[in-house]
Specification:
Radius of gyration: 22 Å
Family: Belongs to the protease inhibitor I35 (TIMP) family.
Strand order of the largest sheet: 1-2-3-5-4
Shape: elongated
Strand content: 35-45%
GO cellular component, one term: extracellular matrix
Keywords: Disulfide bond, Metal-binding, Metalloenzyme inhibitor, Metalloprotease inhibitor, Protease inhibitor, Secreted, Signal, Zinc
Number of domains: 2
CATH class of the largest domain: Mainly Beta
Subcellular location: Secreted
InterPro entries: Netrin_domain (IPR001134), TIMP (IPR001820), TIMP-like_OB-fold (IPR008993), TIMP_C (IPR027465)
Structural class: alpha+beta
CATH topology of the largest domain: OB fold (Dihydrolipoamide Acetyltransferase, E2P)
Amino acid sequence: MDQVKVQVFLLIVLALGITNPMAEGCSCMYAHFQELFCHSEIVIRAKIIGEKIISQSLHGEKMIEYKIKLIKMFKGFDKVDTIQYIYTSIHESLCGIKLDAKNRGQYLLSGYLWQDGKVLVELCGIEERWDNLSLAQKKNLKYRYQKGCECKISTCSKRNCRANANECAWFPFSSQHLQSVCIKRTNGTCNWYMDKSDSHTQLNVRQNGMREISGILEVRKPEPTETWQ
């Protein structure tokens, strides 16, 4: 291969990013919280208590090893008994995530088993500060998301779209559906389910049993009720 051809070849290689796996980038589809749960092997609540860069590679790149304190496991009991460390790529372009070890941040995380039973966490899974989760999401983690995994969630590009009997139609960025869970009913069809005791708005709860929503006071019901949407 003469010098001109070598130069042309190198330019093509550099343009395509063949020599650098980081050039591939990381792209994630926007998904309902329930879908992320169902598609994950492991879902945990954990406190990050340490981190270090290790030479063990993923896509030819170094990784971050996070030491965690496992608070609760929501999914993965059949995969692992306990988890002390989780792993992710050092590069966000390879779907690596950055967690707050300095302040011992507490997160809800999802992942899957990697080499030798290690748990790998990535950008396209669940990575959410525990305090940022709504009350409904925390409740649904206990059993409703798992129960809803037999249903599918179809993404709609417009409102009022229809879904098949085994799925729920979801309009992205809908706060109501982000608070709800898609569960199969007794008649075999899937539908959105919401606990009415979980509000979709920020409530200023008063000691006298009243709540304020956008300046309007309502009396709270003494017992929470659950309804199908």
